[in-house]
Amino acid sequence: FSRLRSGLSKSSNRLADGVTAIFTKRRLDDETLEELHDLLVTADLGVPAATRITEALAKDKFDKEISDVEVREALASEVAMSLTPLEQSLTIDREKKPHILLMVGVNGAGKTTTIGKLARKFADEGLSVMLAAGDTFRAAAIEQLLVWGERTGAPVVTKEIGADAAGLAYDAVKRAQESGTDVLMIDTAGRLQNKRELMDELAKIVRVIKKLDATAPHNVVLTLDATVGQNALSQAEAFQEIAGVTGLVMTKLDGTARGGVLVALADKFSLPIHFIGVGEGVEDLQEFRADAFARALSG
Ligand code: GDP
């Protein structure tokens, strides 16, 4: 929690200082409510959440004196309420062998790092893990995945640069099936600027996976970078359309002033939030906890 709290301190300072500035020796009236609404929207929480929070406050406290502490508490409780239903851990079905996770997201979002962190976590839980370097166009992506494989003891299935990603996915699933591997994580390309091409590529990957296991992929996990703020919303929308996302990992919540976007994402997409990334190290992945997040965000 302290890691998340210090990570989110930029978000929470901005919110807490803003709340204090608005509510020092002032009543809860139309003017202060409007200022609070603006503050929440600027902090990326989105208009629906900002409206819910200000309406909840107005209902109980309109025309009364209110302290900044009370406002922050109301904020934390509203954020926790909207995020709690989305607090869903990623459960691996040990019967699947392999349980297949298709990992999607734009380049730079922290997808490969998240795969590495998850590989360590699953290995620590006694699961055997295999990785597939499905971003076949980026040499750096393949190399980085190999490094994570070495670090975590997970075999990495690779092909030459420019190889067909679906062919690679097929080989990886076959290998994982034959070796009785518990979890297979398939990295994918993140070229959202070529949406059509990426859509075709991901659709083809899913098609070939299904040839070997009709129930797969068992999760399509979208990695989003918190520091991009509102852009996370358009990325989520695009990958929903392209790949049918089943859950989220939000990275880089350490040291960003934009943690509030998770609330806007929740409102818009209602996607389960599995994990948050709070650093670059292998241990810097936490199960998402709505209460802790809400408290860290509201200061
Ligand atoms: P990919 O292109 O989506 O695979 O992104 P990478 O996994 O290569 O990550 C891009 C950069 O973000 C790297 O420098 C990572 O170390 C960094 N990164 C990933 N997750 C986190 C996180 O939770 N916090 C911080 N501070 N950096 C992260």
From TrEMBL:
GO terms for cellular component: cytoplasm; plasma membrane. Residues 272-285 form the SRP54-type proteins GTP-binding domain. The keyword Transmembrane does not apply. It is found in: Cell inner membrane; Cell membrane; Cytoplasm. The keyword Transport does not apply. Keywords: Cell membrane, Cytoplasm, GTP-binding, Hydrolase, Membrane, Nucleotide-binding, Receptor. Belongs to the GTP-binding SRP family. FtsY subfamily. This is Signal recognition particle receptor FtsY. It comes from Hyphococcus flavus. The lineage of its organism: Bacteria, Pseudomonadati, Pseudomonadota, Alphaproteobacteria, Parvularculales. The chain holds residues 55 to 353 of 360 of the full protein.
